[in-house]
Amino acid sequence: MAKTLELQFLNTAGKTVKISVDSPVEPVDQIALNTAMDQILSANIFISTDGEFVSKKGARIIDRNVTEITLG
Fold this sequence. Notes:
By secondary structure, the protein is α+β, with helices and mostly antiparallel strands. It has one helix and four strands; from the N terminus they run E-E-H-E-E. It has one helix at 30-43, and strands at residues 2-11, 16-22, 47-48, 51-64. Strands 2-1-4-3 form a four-stranded antiparallel sheet, covered by helices on one side. This is DUF2922 domain-containing protein. It comes from Metabacillus rhizosphaerae.
């Protein structure tokens, strides 16, 4: 089971851009997450192909289960 924290932002073109963080600490501290996303926006260090990150859209935990199948 692999978990990823996905941070979603909107860029200047109004498109969704994402930053993924592997193996997030749970439960997620919503205040710390909000603060981190605000800092990402204010630092203005990420630029997508359609422009700068301009606002927060959301965040989510993605839980992926993988089952290996042995071929005989």
